[in-house]
Amino acid sequence: MEAYRECRCKAAEGKPVKKKKALAPRVPMPHQAPAERIKNFNEVALGYTSQLAMEEARRCLQCKKPACVEGCPVEVPIPQFIAHLAAGRIEDAYKTIKTTNSLPAICGRVCPQEVQCEGNCILLKKGQPIAIGRLERFVADEYLHRDACDLLADGAKETCPVIDPEKKVACIGSGPSSLTVAGYLASRGCKVTVFEALHELGGVLVYGIPEFRLPKNRIVHKEIHALKQLQVEFKVNAVAGKTFTVQDLFAQGFKAVFIGVGAGLPRFLNIPGENAIGVFSANEYLTRVNLGRAYDFPNYDTPIICGKHVTVYGGGNVAMDAARTALRLGAESVRIVYRRTVDAMPARHEEIEHAIEEGVIMECLAAPLEFTCNEHGHLKAVRLQRMELGEPDDSGRRSPRPIPGDTYELETDLAVIAVGTRSNPVMLDNEPLLTTNKWGYVQVDEATCETSIPNVFAGGDIVTGAATVILAAGAGRTAAKEMARRLGVDS
Amino acid sequence: MQQTPCTIVKKERLIPGQTSKLVISCPHIAKKAQPGNFVILRVSAQGERIPLTIADADPEAGTITMVYLVMGKSTAHLETLEEGDALHDLCGPLGQATHIEQVGTVICVGGGTGIAAMHHIAKGHQRAGNHTVAIIGARSKNLLLFEHELKSFCDEVLIATDDGSYGHKGFVTQVLEERLKTDKTVKEVVAIGPVPMMEAVSKTTKPFGVKTTVSLNSIMVDGIGMCGACRVSVGGQVKFACVDGPEFDGHQVDFGELRQRLAAFKPQEALSFEAFKERHGK
What is the least distance, in Å, from the CA of A219 to any CA of chain B? Predict the structure, then answer.
């Protein structure tokens, strides 16, 4: 095989050959050791140092037509920010990223870069792509670390836009899509108010993604603080459809509304015993631990059950988060039960690797049939159906099918169901003018993200169903562009 | 929407050390609150989210009323707040409003702090033109809540005490059964109180085939349908009490499962309460 990789004809003819420089591998990022990190909720990935970041930045070829940018849903000018970074100009690098991405410290951490920017990097053909996510994260962290307030205040008159109180825009929900809309419009002089149903801002960034992947105080709150400096106003404990309706907002003088309420209603397995004590939806389990800080009970009031033998159902990022959370709460064994094989899991590779390093067992080709409990209703076991992979279907995937009669039982006192979410009807039921599709998601014009109600836009999971942080941000950006155009503020 | 803090404008200790009533200034919630709705609140920045029923709402004054029984850390912490203090977080109104229409005679049964929640629904039925009968009970006369409020608008108020110190000696279900035997105009029974009481009321009405509505008090976290902590089995279907309820057909509810699920965090609740009492020198 080696012989075919390189054309050796010139050498064979005895002509001089230009020796190609071997491609340097990407600079590794320091991590907490697995044995140590499963005892705490601190961030696992420690991030690049300045030296490591600049070394990695210098690997970038500075393509004229950068494919990486095409792979980024919000089109961050990647080569430009990396060039600034390679030259040590952190503030310029940060401002370059911020021109299209409101949440770089978050996206740098939780984006599936392997299928987006990094998956498109030209270096991937010869070796490892540029670690774009790690570099974005480094720039954002370094900038926030140097105190964003001081940097923003320095020359604030030039950079801070003048807010026009007449150009009132409401964002419903404070997750990634809404925050993107807020950042885009506020930086163009609109008066943005964000309404959040929970008591803390950030949506899935605070209730879903755990502290060890995305620190709340150090990162999420800082990103939101940067929006507050753009005079974005935040109102918590405000439930759309209950505390207020879209009509109320227009009556209050808002000119446009963005709906970014996510897809928060959990799916269950619909098998017997699912209401036993110890069976949680991933949303409940993670909300208790992350939003309620139940890992610090009883200093915080929200309680959680710390299982001894934990089983998690599903193969996505949420399942990995729940499993790794259970380990940190002291479980003796944690299993991810999945009906396909590890390579078919939709979770990010990095998250699966981290979970396995930490000791999570992948119980693959198994499907839950029934939960059983003791006389007090406490979960004690799960009966599983063993599966095998059948012939490839039309999509080319080998679909799992049960092996008749091959069932087995696992001891478990804590089960977390992470098989996805659906559209939450709380708001939509109270907005009859809003057209939804047959799955209950909001229908929008793809080019503008406008809904069936004029000047009401929607984006993120409430339109697409559960997806990623960056896709939600991308939808927010599309909607924000159209909103800015109509408000006459786009430069 | 909450920007101004939600402040306690009036606090009344209905049963000292046990049950209190709070009138809270929150015009945005008061404007929208209907009978049957509830709120989620947090007492402090480290607090948990707990649900409480809206026992009354005054849209003009911009206030809602809540009644709670001190039974653990969060309610004990709430009990330390006084007039002028603000709740850390208050979110609502949540849940489906009570379905109220003019049907004839409606009996509203209440037990414990559930009487307060029941009284708001009874008021709704009265306003809709129903002949409204309240049946309320307590262990003894001094523990009876909201008697005067109910008497101010209900057509009839019937009372039962376990020890016979006031009204009928025995349970509210006995008073209810007597009434159902003799009164064929009863179209609906509403029951709010402890789970065993709501279960007993549902059993009592079943042979009479009278529609029975119960308001379920399952464990909640977000209260907006995000997590399913509050899930209950109703007619063999899984429902979320926070968005599908909290009111359901009492003849369809799996009360046994509800009772078990309510005990899910008992050890943690005791631990949290003990730690709180130690800090507050009780």
Answer: 19
| Residue B197, domain member (yes or no) | yes
Q: Is the ipTM of this complex over 0.90?
A: yes
- Model's pTM, two decimal places? 0.92
Domain that holds residue B104: 96-214
Distance CA A223, CA A221 (A): 5
Q: Using DSSP bridges, classify how beta strands A265-266 and A421-422 pair: parallel, antiparallel or unpaired.
A: antiparallel
Query: Are both B128 and B159 inside the same structural domain?
Result: yes
pLDDT for B140-157, tens place per residue?
998 899 999 999 999 999
Run of H or E including A414? strand A414-417
Q: Do B2 and A237 touch (CB under 8 A)?
A: yes
Long-range interactions of A164-168: CB distance < 8 A, separation 24+: A164/A189, A164/A190, A164/A191, A164/A489, A165/A191, A166/A191, A166/A255, A167/A191, A167/A255, A167/A487, A167/A489, A168/A193, A168/A252, A168/A253, A168/A254, A168/A255
Q: How far apart are CA A389 and CA A407, in angstroms?
A: 16
For A285, the closest chain B residue by CA position comes to B227
pLDDT > 70? residue A155: no
- The answer to whether A305 contacts chain B (CB < 8 Å) is yes
Quick check: helix, strand or coil at residue A296? helix
- Cα gap A178→B119, rounded to integer Å: 40
Angle (deg, nearest 10), helices A176-186 and A469-487: 30
- Terminal alpha carbon distance of chain A: 54
Q: Which amino acid, one-letter code, is at A321? A: D
Per DSSP bridges, beta strands B50-53 and B38-42 are antiparallel
Of the candidates A53, A117, A118, which has an alpha carbon nearest to the alpha carbon of residue A86?
A53
Please state, in angstroms and rounded to a whole number, the distance separating the CA atoms of residues A177 and A100.
Answer: 13
Checking if the pLDDT of A327 tops 50, the result is yes
Name the band, by pLDDT with cuts 50, 70 and 90, for residue A395: confident
B253 contact residues in A (CB cutoff 8 A): none
Q: CA of B274, closest CA in chain A: separation in Å?
A: 10
Do residue B160 and residue B225 come from a single domain? Answer: no
Chain B residues touching residue A242 (CB < 8 angstroms): 32, 92-94, 224
* Number of structural domains in chain B: 3
CB contact under 8 A, B225 and A268: no
Interchain proximity A239–B91, CB inside 8 Å:
yes
pLDDT > 80? residue A158: no
* Chain A: closest CA distance from residue B215 (Å): 19
Q: Per this entry, what is the length of chain A?
A: 491
Is B108 annotated in a binding site? The answer is: no
User: Chain A residues with CB inside 8 Å of B222's CB?
Assistant: 197-198, 287
Q: How far apart are CA A476 and CA B139, in angstroms?
A: 57
Q: How confident is the model at residue A162 (pLDDT cuts 50, 70, 90)?
A: confident
Inspect the interface and report whether the beta carbons of B268 and A235 lie closer than 8 Å. no
CB contact under 8 A, B272 and A298: yes
The CATH number covering residue B210 comes to 3.40.50.80
Q: State the best of B41, B44, B91 to mutate against chain A, taking most chain A CBs within 10 Å.
A: B91
Residue A19: what pLDDT? 58
Whether A25 shows a pLDDT value over 50: the answer reads yes
Please tell me the distance from the alpha carbon of residue B218 to that of residue B29, in angstroms, as a whole number: 22
Per-residue pLDDT at A157: 41
Per-residue pLDDT band for B119 (boundaries 50, 70, 90) equals very high
Residues B192 and B232 in one domain: no
